[in-house]
Amino acid sequence: MSVGILIITHGELGDALLGAVRDTLGLCPLQTETLKVPLQVKIDEADAIAARTCERIDSGEGVLILADLYGSTPSNIAMRAASQGHRAVITGVNLPMLIRIMNYPTLTLEALADKACSGAKEGIILSFGTS
Questions:
Q1: pLDDT tens digits, one per residue of 77-112
Q2: Based on C-alpha coordinates, what's the Rg of the chain?
């Protein structure tokens, strides 16, 4: 058993990130699904889809829900979905975070959430070119 991953984002962002993970690693070792949130979303429907998806991908180890922007509609959907069961939410999903997650598929929900945050932070590098 392993933690399930639900990526909730505006439009196609989640699918693009997941596709990049699969291209980079050649596989996706965790049960992972995306939820696209359109501009004209019906909140009740999106909440129901997120709840059903979390139930489906939870093998007993919990679900890590990743959203793109804190305070946004995808983030709010994620927070409501996390109110049931053994679930955690991280906002600011990015490719380094997802790569890190997929490299540690046997971790607990809590440990995986920590790895996700460290991967996201360590994947952001500021560099100035020389002139």
A1: 999 999 999 999 999 999 999 999 999 999 999 999
A2: 15
